[in-house]
Design goal:
84 residues, mainly alpha, 0% strand
Length: 84
């Protein structure tokens, strides 16, 4: 259940990032969602002491949100430099 929660949280944050950044390209929406999921899973796994299949603690979920936001920010920063 914890894995599903982290995936959903990461995807939602990626989708919200596209709204906040006003990205209209459909591929960018999917890319941001995938970056959010990756950040959420990686940091959630580390913060949850590797026990991601069971439940997720509140602290691990907050860390996962932070990891997701950082991953989305880094992804968009790299993408901006790639287009220049």
């Amino acid at each position: 259940m914890g894995l599903l929660i982290l995936i959903v949280v990461g995807a939602l944050l990626g989708w919200l990032a596209t709204i906040i950044l006003r990205i209209e390209d459909g591929r960018s929406i999917l890319s941001n969602a995938l970056a959010g999921v990756a950040g959420s899973l990686i940091v959630g796994l580390i913060a949850g002491n590797g026990a991601i299949v069971g439940s997720v603690s509140g602290i691990a979920l907050l860390w996962a949100v932070l990891g997701s936001v950082i991953a989305i920010g880094l992804f968009n920063l790299v993408r901006q430099y790639a287009y220049r």
